[in-house]
Write a structure and sequence with these properties.
Length: 197
């Protein structure tokens, strides 16, 4: 790989953002299929390719699901102290106007009906491929972990057309970004150990 391509790839990795504001424009099927093709090229355990994908392009249904997701996530997050001591961090999930999907027009679900120690890893690696591909195609994306519990309710899976054996592992919204998204900061790299001979 030329050094120019190396720099470009590193720029892509660092340039991706979690986008939380979208235009009303929809994404076409051909583009979504390109993203899914990028997703399936992720490394995965034993190359078993245990993932499966579902696409939801229905803003009204997503808004309804958001309303179901908020109290479920609030209860779970409060119980597990995901607010890390900031007692207001979860307040947004009690705001009736807040949509956990940020009014995005497309939700992609990376799912699996398989069990095993690496199923989650495989799906998450596919997710990163998909989000990087979205970024280079000029699209925004954001993982919506707060909707996982609601998405895995039997009635949600039935609404989407997923079998009950299917588990949603990664929900990712997609859309055309409206405006710029600032980079979120990162702490310095911490190397906990480096043993060498
Ligand atoms: C497992 C997981 C769950 C996430 N869930 C949400 C979510 O529910 N809502 C949201 O706005 N962002 C969510 N995010 C996005 C993170 O907030 C985001 O990746 C982080 O703040 C770093 O910002 P960046 O992606 O722009 O670098 C999630 C990310 C991960 C990996």
């Amino acid at each position: 790989m030329t050094s120019e391509r190396q720099e470009k790839l590193l720029e892509v990795i660092k340039g991706r953002r979690s986008v939380r504001s979208y235009t009303a424009e929809d994404i076409d099927k051909a583009t979504i299929m390109r993203l899914l093709d990028a997703a399936i090229h992720a490394p995965n355990a034993l190359n078993e390719q245990v993932w499966s994908f579902a696409v939801v392009q229905d803003r009204a249904w997503l808004k309804q699901l958001s309303d179901k997701a908020k109290p479920l996530f609030y209860a779970e997050a409060s119980q597990k102290h995901l607010d890390r001591g900031d007692s207001h961090a979860l307040d947004i999930f009690t705001n009736p106007d807040f949509n956990v999907f940020y009014n995005a027009g497309t939700l992609i679900l990376i799912c699996s009906d398989k069990q095993g120690p690496f199923v989650q890893a495989d799906c998450w690696l596919a997710a990163e491929n998909l989000m990087l591909a979205a970024y280079v195609l000029g699209l925004g994306s954001c993982i919506i972990g707060s909707a996982l519990e609601a998405l895995n309710l039997p009635e949600s899976k039935a609404d989407i057309g997923l079998t009950k054996e299917m588990t949603v592992v990664v929900p990712i919204i997609l859309g055309i970004p409206s405006g710029e998204t600032a980079a979120s900061s990162r702490r310095n790299v911490e190397v906990s150990a480096w043993r060498s001979s």
